[in-house]
Amino acid sequence: MSRVLIAGGAGFLGSHLTDALIEKGYEVVVLDNLSSGLRTNLSSVESRIEFFNDDVAKFDYPKRLDVIVNLASRASRMEWETFPVEVALTNSIGNNNLIKLAIRKEALYLYASSSEVYGKAKVIPTPEEYIGKTSTVGSRSPYDEGKRFGETLVKAYERELGLRGIIMRIFNTYGPRMRGGDTYGRVIDRFIMQALEGKAITVYGDGSQTRSFTYVSDTVGAILSLIENGSEGEIYNIGNDEEKKIIEVANLVKSISYSKSSIKYLPLPPDDPSRRSADASKLRKLGWSPKIDLENGIRRTLNYYAETLNIADHFMRKG
Ligand SMILES: NC(=O)c1ccc[n+]([C@@H]2O[C@H](COP(=O)([O-])OP(=O)(O)OC[C@H]3O[C@@H](n4cnc5c(N)ncnc54)[C@H](O)[C@@H]3O)[C@@H](O)[C@H]2O)c1
Asked: pTM of the predicted model, to two decimals?
């Protein structure tokens, strides 16, 4: 059976991907420095994986590897701002080390890039051919430019040394195990925790900016499709084209959770894209389509946080 190394496997996407691969009978090796991931995310598969607490920049592995999925990178805006050097280097030097490992093992290499490479896209939904523009020096740049350079490295090694690469441009994904706190939480999970804890729901700007959201099992399903049927040398958007205004999402979370939280408007961060949505037709040609709509996904995520936080069910009741 194929052996897959998941870098960043203790994180949000990585731990769900680990669960799915184990379920399908793959051998899974997880590499994670636990900077933003948690060992407990892997507790249900702990005895069935090999785990290495190490940095992607230093890691080596003596045995056969068939696939490497590089998901290692802090992924929330507050983290790019707090740990800018680490984020930039993980996507460059760390990525470089894993690419060289993939070449030595003749393994398929899937690199997790991001919709952030499109910057403020003028074509919505955005296809893979769209050439994005981002600031090299703005506060988002360690991540945006890190991902752009990460992609450049994959393409360079493909051309010069025959890397078997696939670039995944992942759009906003949400669901259980994503960090939901006020500091490092990403939008839906942050809204859900704020609603459950009765805190104000923090919306940046007036909330008219849009994003397209994909539930975690659908994003993981897309990564599985690419591992099994993706074309080497290609770039795939992973996301859907249903645009939602952030204020609509905040109100949806409020109504589904019956929360009495107020909505608090905060200044819009610099370079925040006003619209974002994925043209995922290329991925759909592999047979993929999202299965969980936003309302259902929010419900599932709410249930998870309510259980994890041990929040009394009165937060989830009307009245
Ligand atoms: N979740 C999304 O909506 C989304 C969107 C676009 C792109 N992505 C990309 O997908 C990947 C996974 O994102 P996520 O949401 O699961 O984030 P996450 O923070 O939950 O997971 C990232 C994991 O990588 C680990 N890590 C970070 N730096 C490392 C290093 N130098 N060495 C070893 N491990 C390291 C962290 O400890 C964590 O477990 C990231 O590369 C992210 O940029 C995610």
From this structure: 0.96
